[in-house]
Design goal:
118 residues, mainly beta, seven-stranded mixed beta sheet, four-stranded antiparallel beta sheet, 53% strand, globular
Length: 118
């Protein structure tokens, strides 16, 4: 069982920056592909960025060049550095863990709210 806890959300002005963190419980964090998703009010949840267990990174076109995903396996934590934020980035951001080695479990965090004011 893996528990995911997001933090770092808040209110920021357009053009500003925030760093989200996702802390994972358990001893097999390094065997999971990790990702960030977001859900804006009235919209479906969408992919933002992912980092594989082997540290390949992937980004949605809408955030490419502005957001950076990273992970620290020693701290069981994933990060999302968000720069040049736009009002359309306003959403609840969710952390996801997808087991890549030794199983096929998938877990979600409860989310952290990011609000970007214009």
């Amino acid at each position: 069982q893996v528990q995911l806890v997001e933090s770092g959300g808040g209110l920021v002005q357009a053009g500003g920056s925030l760093t989200l963190s996702c802390a994972a419980s358990g001893r097999t964090f390094s065997s999971y592909d990790m990702g960030w998703f977001r859900q804006a009010p009235g919209k479906e949840r969408e992919f933002v960025a992912a980092i594989s267990w082997s540290t390949y990174t992937y980004y949605a076109d809408s955030v490419k060049g502005r957001f950076t995903i990273s992970r620290d396996n020693l701290k069981n934590t994933m990060y999302l550095q968000m720069n040049s934020l736009k009002p359309e980035d306003t959403a609840v951001y969710y952390c996801n863990a997808d087991q890549a080695v030794g199983g096929n479990m998938n877990y979600w965090g409860k989310g952290t709210l990011v609000t970007v004011s214009s």
